[in-house]
From TrEMBL:
This is Signal peptidase I. GO terms for cellular component: plasma membrane. Keywords: Hydrolase, Protease. PANTHER family: CHLOROPLAST PROCESSING PEPTIDASE (PTHR43390:SF1), SIGNAL PEPTIDASE I (PTHR43390). InterPro entries: LexA/Signal_pep-like_sf, Pept_S26A_signal_pept_1, Pept_S26A_signal_pept_1_CS, Pept_S26A_signal_pept_1_Lys-AS, Pept_S26A_signal_pept_1_Ser-AS, Peptidase_S26. It is a single-pass type II membrane protein. SUPFAM superfamilies: LexA/Signal peptidase (SSF51306). GO terms for biological process: signal peptide processing. It comes from Melghirimyces profundicolus. CDD domains: S26_SPase_I. One of its GO terms (molecular function) is serine-type endopeptidase activity. It catalyses: Cleavage of hydrophobic, N-terminal signal or leader sequences from secreted and periplasmic proteins. Residues 8-187 form the Peptidase S26 domain. The lineage of its organism: Bacteria, Bacillati, Bacillota, Bacilli, Bacillales. Signal peptide: none annotated.
Length: 195
């Protein structure tokens, strides 16, 4: 009888811990691994980062230069169930592979900004941006002519990767709605400290 009671208490404790961990990684803070080269030289493939989900949870617009995780499927509605299913802990527990719709990019334009791509530079509100974080000093024009010059709508941001020659970003899919900004990078690490 004592063994059954002990197993029951352990099971309840583990269930509570799992639920709390899922809530934390869904709505507060989430560890992530960088995949790909679109944010080089700032972030390398296989770097580890921590993402604050508070900006997404509280519906806050990120600022210029913030590195954010976006949901690139901007035509699909975000739901609470999608939030849980795309959280890293849920994917780890269920054995799902990484979410391919989650991209790591830098905020270049905020609501109301007019962005233009000419002379291999990004112009924001008529002034060329100084972007020391980019891999290449030039910026290729958008592959979609629709985004050669764009005014960022209300409740949207325009994002780009730092490795401009090797990045899918707002030049391909357009401005990102605020509810598709899933979080903001707060810490970068060369390796995961818990291995």
């Amino acid at each position: 009888m004592k063994l059954i009671r002990t197993l029951f208490h352990w099971s309840i404790s583990l269930l509570i811990a799992a639920v709390l961990s899922l809530l934390i990684t869904t709505f507060l803070i989430e560890p992530a691994e960088v995949h790909g080269q679109s944010m080089m030289p700032t972030l390398q493939d296989n770097n580890y980062i921590l993402i604050s989900k508070l900006s997404h949870t509280l519906d806050q617009t990120p600022g210029y230069g913030d590195i954010v995780v976006i949901d690139s499927e901007i035509d699909r509605d975000r739901s609470l169930m999608r939030e849980f299913k795309e959280a890293s802990l849920y994917r780890l527990l269920t054995g799902r592979e990484k979410a391919h719709n989650r991209w790591l990019k830098r905020v270049i334009g905020e609501p109301g900004d007019t962005l233009e791509f000419k002379n291999n530079k990004v112009y924001r509100n008529g002034k060329p941006l100084q972007e020391p974080y980019t891999m290449d000093p030039t910026t290729p024009p958008p592959r979609n002519a629709r985004w050669q010059k764009v005014t960022v709508p209300e409740d949207h941001v325009f994002v780009m990767g730092d490795n401009r020659d090797n990045s899918k970003d707002s030049r391909d899919i357009g401005p990102i709605p605020n509810n598709h900004i899933l979080g903001k990078m707060i810490v970068q690490m060369e390796s995961w400290p818990f291995r």
